[in-house]
Design brief:
By secondary structure, the chain is mainly alpha-helical. Helices cover 60% and strands 0% of the residues. The chain has a single domain, classed as Lysozyme (Orthogonal Bundle), CATH 1.10.530. The chain is globular.
Length: 188
């Protein structure tokens, strides 16, 4: 394993990004992954989904699939204490909204979650290519890092990407958020 980490700097960075002891709250949230596809939407959520439908259309053609994905992103982001617009920006940068994306370092799915997280929490059979599971993992992990960094989104994004101390990845995510996903406070 050590030799593999030395040969793949991205994998070494990702492995170094694993907390020494995973907090129980992170484990509890990830362990509660369910595959319930439905979400209940209130008026504000419905307005948000309607607004984001047009923005996501160039990347995901099927309107029903777009609506389901947006509803799930909104629900998972809120559950993790995140802005759903930031989650959209992370997905844009990480996978370009390809649910089957896999990086050279092995990160999988929409939010490019590293498979070691399955081992860390003891759920080896979870499918990180499943959008529901991937969003639960990705949002929960990013939310954890945001709390760890006392609300500093730049540092939390860098931790998520395994590039703490660098700003390239957070800048790309924030640029995607500002240019494509940002909403006025009236819809949030």
């Amino acid at each position: 394993m050590a030799a593999g980490l030395a040969l793949c700097p991205a994998l070494a960075l990702a492995a170094a990004n694993v907390p020494a002891q995973v907090p129980g709250t992170l484990l509890d949230t990830l362990e509660s992954v369910t595959h319930a596809r439905g979400t209940q939407a209130d008026a504000a959520t419905s307005a948000w989904i309607a607004t984001m439908q047009a923005r996501l259309a160039p990347r995901l053609g099927d309107p029903r699939a777009r609506r389901r994905l947006l509803a799930r992103i909104h629900a998972e982001a809120r559950l993790a204490g995140l802005s759903p617009e930031i989650v959209l920006a992370v997905i844009q940068v990480e996978s370009g909204f390809r649910r089957d994306a896999e990086s050279s370092a092995g990160a999988q799915g929409l939010m490019q979650v590293m498979p070691f997280w399955k081992r860390v929490i003891g759920r080896r059979d979870d499918d990180l290519f499943d959008p529901v599971t991937n969003l639960r993992y990705g949002c929960t992990i990013l939310g954890y890092y945001l709390r760890l960094e006392s609300g500093d989104l730049t540092r939390a994004l860098a931790r998520y990407n395994g590039s703490l101390g660098e700003t390239g990845y957070p800048e790309r995510v924030l640029r995607a958020w500002q240019t494509r996903w940002w909403l006025a406070a009236t819809l949030e």
